[in-house]
Design a protein that fits this description.
alpha+beta, 19% strand, globular, single chain, Beta-lactamase
Length: 264
């Protein structure tokens, strides 16, 4: 067992104990991408995906660009898609290019942009990725901020193992074409949310990732580009509330700190 694998085992053990003490359900995948060596915890447990579902949507948009649409196409933001607390709503311009919607979705997790892009590529195109890659716990079946659907039990779901499968395919340029994979990694490196895996890390650490959060879930999935390239999928679910959200985010923050402390 090499030094990195020992460290990954340490992270798993201590994160599991911390989550248990805080009454948080934790799922985790840690993988050194060169060797494929993995450490996992409850990685097939299904969680509400929150905004991590935007990663496969991004890939569908990047793969389909040039077929039925281009990045420069302008799409009007409909009132149906203009959900609150979205960058493109606050900017009040009314219409944006596909490229702008895609960037705001990945950089600021803009929900209105996400809804526009779901309409653009279609539910089936995104769900086909899950079927093709064997992501058995992952499904896109509602738009962002659709509280009525959630109340009826209709939700977007995923698990840590499925997100790891997707990230691995992007990293290795498997299933997806080369250019979309490169664009995806560059977009994810620009994610502005540093409250989770990057919480206790220097800002110059290269990390291509996407976070996701709801009242009861906090997730961060991505790839650290350090001395060794390390894939991390950390997903947490707990009782709702601001205090529990803070504990979920800090728990994931410690995972990043423990994992990268010798890579800095």
């Amino acid at each position: 067992m090499n030094q990195l694998v020992r460290r990954m085992e340490y992270v798993k053990t201590h994160a599991e104990q911390m989550a248990k003490e805080r009454k948080i359900t934790l799922s985790l995948v840690l993988e050194e991408l060169t060797s494929g060596q993995q450490v996992v915890l409850a990685d097939h447990m299904a969680h509400s995906s929150a905004s991590t579902i935007k990663v496969p949507l991004m890939m569908a948009v990047l793969e389909e660009e040039g077929r039925g649409f281009s990045f420069s196409d302008v799409i009007e933001l409909s009132s149906e898609n203009a959900v609150d607390f979205s960058v493109v709503v606050e900017m009040e311009e009314g219409s944006y290019t596909v490229k702008e919607y895609l960037q705001w979705m990945m950089l600021e997790s803009c929900n209105a942009s996400t809804n526009v892009l779901i309409d653009l590529v279609g539910w089936d195109r995104v769900n086909r990725i899950f079927n093709d890659l064997g992501m058995t716990e992952t499904v896109l079946q509602r738009k962002m901020m659709d509280t009525e659907a959630r109340a009826k039990g209709i939700d977007n779901m995923t698990c840590a193992s499925d997100m790891a499968t997707l990230l691995r395919a992007i990293y290795r340029r498997e299933y997806f074409k080369e250019d979309p994979c490169q664009r995806a990694i560059e977009l994810m490196k620009r994610c502005r949310d540093t409250r989770l895996l990057k919480r206790f890390l220097p800002r110059n650490i290269e990390f291509a990732h996407k976070t996701g959060g709801l009242d009861e879930v906090s997730h961060d999935v991505g790839i650290f580009f350090a001395k060794k390239d390390i894939l991390v999928a950390a997903m947490t679910t707990s009782a709702p509330g601001e205090e529990m959200q803070e504990m979920r985010e800090k728990t994931i923050g410690h995972i990043g700190r423990w994992l990268l402390k010798e890579e800095i």
